[in-house]
Amino acid sequence: LSSPLLSSLSDSAIVNGVYWSEALNKVFVDNFERDPSLIWQYFGSAKGFFRQYPAWPELSPSGRVRDKQGTFSQTK
């Protein structure tokens, strides 16, 4: 399939945007540490990609499960 939007964006524009938005990871973690009631945080780019924190509802980036108090326990 082709679309004007897809053909106007280069792969490097998306890759550069993903790298640029990596700084949001720290913002998302800091936000969660200040307010553990946050369930998800999102960033959507006009270039067509998005970031979500955490990547899975119950898992941290290290693979640990978040409990109801916002702390983590190791999964098997």
From TrEMBL:
Keywords: Calcium, Glycoprotein, Membrane, Signal, Transmembrane, Transmembrane helix. The keyword Phosphoprotein does not apply. Residues 12-56 form the VWA N-terminal domain. The keyword Lipid biosynthesis does not apply. It is found in: Membrane. Its main location: membrane. One of its GO terms (cellular component) is voltage-gated calcium channel complex. One of its GO terms (molecular function) is voltage-gated calcium channel activity. The lineage of its organism: Eukaryota, Metazoa, Chordata, Craniata, Vertebrata. It is a single-pass type I membrane protein. This is VWA N-terminal domain-containing protein.
